[in-house]
Amino acid sequence: MSKRTERRGIHVDQSELLCKKGCGYYGNAGWQGLCSKCWREEYQRARQKQIQEDWALAEKLQREEEAAYVSIHSSSQTQPPQSHSQPSLATFSKFEEKKTNEKTRKVTTVKKFFSPSSRTAPKKVPLENENEKEKLHGRRESHGETLLRDLKGIFTQPWEMGSSTEALVSKLRESHEGKTPSPSITRRSSIETDRASRDFGEFLKTLKPGREILKQSCLFIDSMGNKKDLGAEELSECVQDFYQNMSDRLMSHFKGSSDKVDRVMDQVEKYIMTRLYKSVFCPETSDDEKKDLSTQHRIRALHWVTIQMLCVPVDEEIPEVSDGVVKAITDIIEMDSKRVPRDKLACITSCSKHIFNAIRVTKNEPASADDFLPTLIYIVLKANPPRLQSNIQYITRFCNPSRLMTGEDGYYFTNLCCAVAFIEKLDAQSLNLSTEDFECYMSGQASPRRQDDPAWPQTGSCINPALSQIHQNLSVLSNLEKRQQQVIEGAQSLQTELAEWQNNVAREVQEILERYPLEIKPRASAIDAENVENDRLPPPIQPEVFAG
After folding, report:
1. Neighbours of 391 (CB within 10 A)
2. pLDDT (tens digit per residue) in 220-275
3. Are residues 339 and 192 in contact, defined by beta-carbon separation less than 8 angstroms?
């Protein structure tokens, strides 16, 4: 990944996103820079070589053990019956211990590849004649014979899409009769599983080979229930083999119509991966969880990275741009809630489109790839998506490979892988900082936003609008606090003045009362109060009315 020092940005050539084999498809960091097709070819070539080496090792061990047993058995016949038991057992035990030490490393690899077959019923070792049968009768099965039995069981009875329906049905019947039901079958179906099964059944009703597709999908899901001990790469190989076989059969049925095949394969992927999600997402045999925690801690430690450090051409002061950034963060966080790889890719694609739109609105021109990758890195740093590495690995392992090799989904997913790789390798030189400043920022001893401006944060395109709004709100609150203090002081002063005025008024009234005391005179009597002969007065004159 190259950088432009003078631009202080991140630049990636489009050729760096393509497969290292030069096939023209998009590569992936999880596949060592190869596309899914080239990676599968390399993986199968290495696996076939390993299988051949393990097979040869198993045959060699079997021959050596049989020769040792024959040698011990023949020598024991020449010794007295009373004394040959303990020495022969001791000699054979030492021989087994020696061979076990020699084969420990490669035998472990064989067990990892073929552990499901070890749970099947043991097969009889073919004997060439009765003498060998009598010779081997009564002794335990050697380790070399066990490896050969497992290898032969794998290569003579593989599960293939091209097998007959009767054979598949009989195999399904045997698995149900001879084995306990898989936890994925007995587990209570979730709402997503029920919905996926219902949608898949409705979709297959419109297809002529719908019943056969459903049967093959159910058989594959049942067979995956017995492969939980496999590693993540082996599980991925099983799913990819099923995709390839199903796609080949559909291509022959639809006579080369790739659109119809892609439409059917999308539904097959949705049904299968919804059913298998709990058993194949972040399996216990992988280190995905450890990588998730490492990436999450790394992103948390880089919380101080600003837009200007990454040279992100986005102005979050513009409402439309700010909404686009929020939607992009929401989409990449929502990726973890999806079960189907195609749905997770859709979240990545939606996030990328929001990023392109935000850049276009800010620059008033179409966005370029040099603008997109730094902005995507900035979105990932702000979002810190949950289980990011597990989701990337899940898409890489179980998505339909055609989606990752071409198209906008493959392009955006490849850029996301590049963004995560850049975050993991981010250093002082990547951000045009000194080593001392970078270490101070990473340890939390200093912040680049507070270094130069004591009035941080200022409004502008390089500052998060949410932080700018918080700063404005704090300033308003500070002003309100000062005004409130002034109002309280004024109220207290008014209360003091009112108390003093009341005291002054009371004092003045008291002084006036003291100066001019109130004198109460006796009540005056009535005019005729002394007339004691009121009863002798004539009655009052009454008006008289005369008739005219």
Report:
1. 24
2. 999 998 887 888 888 999 999 999 999 999 988 888 788 889 899 999 999 999 99
3. yes
**What are the counts of helices (DSSP H) followed by strands (DSSP E) for the chain?**
20, 2
Alpha-carbon distance of 176 to 321, in angstroms, equals: 57
CA dihedral 199, 205, 208, 213 (to 10 degrees): 40
Q: How far apart are the first and last CA of the chain?
A: 137
Measured CA to CA in angstroms, residue 206 lies from 163, 195, 199, 203, 264 at distances of 24, 18, 12, 6, 11
**Among all chains, which residue has been given the structure tokens 């194949």?**
280
Distance CA 415, CA 421 (A): 10
Rounded to the nearest angstrom, the gap between the alpha carbon of residue 548 and the centroid of all alpha carbons in its chain is 123
The span from the CA of 247 to the CA of 161, in Å, is 10
CA distance 452 to 443: 19
Whether the Cβ atoms of residue 31 and residue 231 lie closer than 8 Å to each other? no
The DSSP letter of residue 138 is T
Q: Using the 8-state DSSP alphabet, how is residue 164 labeled? A: -
CA distance 221 to 175: 12
